[in-house]
Amino acid sequence: MPTETLLATLALAALPAALYKAWRRLQLSRAKHPSLAGHSLWAKRIARLVPGYSYTEAEFFAADGAPPEVQALRRAGLARLSQRLRMRSSRTLALTAEVREGLSDLQFTGRYRVPFQFSEYVRANLPLGAFWASAEGVELTDLDGTRCIDLTGSYGVNVFGLDFYKACMAEGLALGNSLGPVLGGYHPCVADNVARLKAISGLDEVSFHMSGTEAVMQAVRLARYHTRKRYVVRFTGAYHGWWEDVQPGPGNPLPPRETYTLKDMGDADTLRVLRTRTDIACVLVNPLQALHPNRNAPGDSTLVDGQRSAGFDRAAYTAWLHTLRQVCTERGIVLIFDEVFVGFRLAPGGAQEYFGVQADMVTYGKTLGGGLPVGVVCGRQHLMQRFRPERPADICFARGTFNAHPAVMGAMHAFLNRLQTPEVQAIYSGLDERWQARAAAFNRAMTEASLPLRVEALSSIWTVTYQLPSRYHWLLQFYLREAGLALSWVGTGRFIFSLNFSDADMAEVTRRVVAACQHMQADGWWWQGPGSQPKAIRRKILKEMLQMRFTGKRG
Ligand SMILES: Cc1ncc(COP(=O)(O)O)c(C=O)c1O
């Protein structure tokens, strides 16, 4: 056969395979969210192109083109706010300033509290203290004795109230004290913890780790090991810790590898990918995404054009999880619920109980440590095993020095003991209704005060949404601090309540939010004009970036 004919025949034979591959690639592309959050590789590339720059003082007050009289209001308001924050917490701020240079974590969170253009001026003029001297009830007290109601929720750890965890920690330390730092062997309370976790998760085995990130990493590794498939499916916007494979896109120095980031809740393209591909080891679900499917965690630094949307539809999300369960079962894909954040907050049996779906593996962390650091994986027996008896050299290695530390196991024991008490069970009774009613009451108060913000709630986790466009919504977190409300560095994206908040505490929170918003409004930050509209904001920012990128300066 002549060479040309041979090549043509070979090309023809390879065509169906190439077409099939292209078709599968297309299916995968369609299952990605059209936003950058769904395209981690592009997000990462584009993030590298975004030039850094800071607004001058003049630009800071006029970023939306507000007239001079509004700018003057803003200047006076910010000066007053700055002075009040400094006056109330001078010692706390002095120590924060002293330690910042040597504390990388603080530099990072300080920089990403607000959109980057405003960040430098904010750091110089609106300092927030990073130290607390004590905590009690629902309040934190700083080094100057200034008290704030705690809406940080300690990153979600604080489900039952600060004093609850103080008691668990003390009990845990006392219990573990007989062993001190003995590791490798276990304190007897571990037997009880394992039995309770098996019952709570409905799964066969448990492994202990030191953080939620580590637990997720181990669950994914085990799923890959047992299915002999490479890819993990996670959903757009979901956080699963800072480990590479589950944090593709910006925030991670390595490019995304064996991870598919697909559209969330009810998406037919995603289901098609799960039903047809043969390379998927596991599907990782963070049920917190029910509050904002397909969106990243709602930090104030991303509140660039003032728009943020959220909303929880329990029935729709429940149906989605049931569908995922069914597809994973049909396809031999491991369904992993990452309950590090929501575990024990929605129901005693966690998200599995709340949504009525049994996963193959569940990760817990945060609150389960009773105030001490922990990560836990629960899973079916055939998935948890780290070795193959028939191939002794083929293992899935995982060990950690501090896993199952006596003090942590003791505090977990105290936590799990308390979980069974009638007092704690009573907290769970009518929980959803109570918190939905509280969110509704909060929103009514905002309407009555004609304020442009509302909350969307997943039980005791709230996200603030704004009804006006603005370049300045992120400033509210500073007015809230002035009013005595402490938020984490993500700002108004999350109010995390502990379940010991009384109706009186909620009324006080609402009163303080109203007061803070009224100040913000009076100081002119919510002025509306052509430059405060989302399209105009985006256009202005794009222009600034292009100028910076191509000329190295602006204006
Ligand atoms: C759902 C989820 N998974 C994993 C993690 C990581 O846990 P850790 O911060 O303990 O490593 C977090 C932390 O916020 C989380 O919310």
Task: Please characterize this protein's 3D structure.
A hairpin with a 5-residue loop joins β2 (139-141) and β3 (147-150). This protein has helices spanning 3-30, 40-49, 57-61, 68-88, 90-100, 104-111, 116-125, 162-176, 189-201, 212-227, 268-276, 314-331, 350-355, 381-384, 406-419, 422-428, 431-448, 476-482, 503-522, 534-551; strands at residues 134-136, 139-141, 147-150, 205-209, 231-235, 259-262, 280-285, 334-338, 361-365, 375-379, 387-388, 391-395, 453-458, 461-466, 485-486, 495-496. The strands form four sheets. The protein has a seven-stranded mixed sheet with strand order 4-10-9-8-7-5-6, sandwiched between helices. The chain has 555 residues and is an alpha/beta fold. It starts with a helix and ends with a helix. The structure holds pyridoxal-5'-phosphate. Pyridoxal-5'-phosphate binds next to α10.
List the helices and strands and how they pair.
Elements: H1 3-30, H2 40-49, H3 57-61, H4 68-88, H5 90-100, H6 104-111, H7 116-125, E1 134-136, E2 139-141, E3 147-150, H8 162-176, H9 189-201, E4 205-209, H10 212-227, E5 231-235, E6 259-262, H11 268-276, E7 280-285, H12 314-331, E8 334-338, H13 350-355, E9 361-365, E10 375-379, H14 381-384, E11 387-388, E12 391-395, H15 406-419, H16 422-428, H17 431-448, E13 453-458, E14 461-466, H18 476-482, E15 485-486, E16 495-496, H19 503-522, H20 534-551
Parallel strand pairs: 3-15, 5-6, 5-7, 7-8, 8-9
Antiparallel strand pairs: 1-2, 2-3, 4-10, 9-10, 11-12, 13-14, 14-16
Helix pairs in contact: 1-11, 8-15, 9-15, 17-19, 18-19
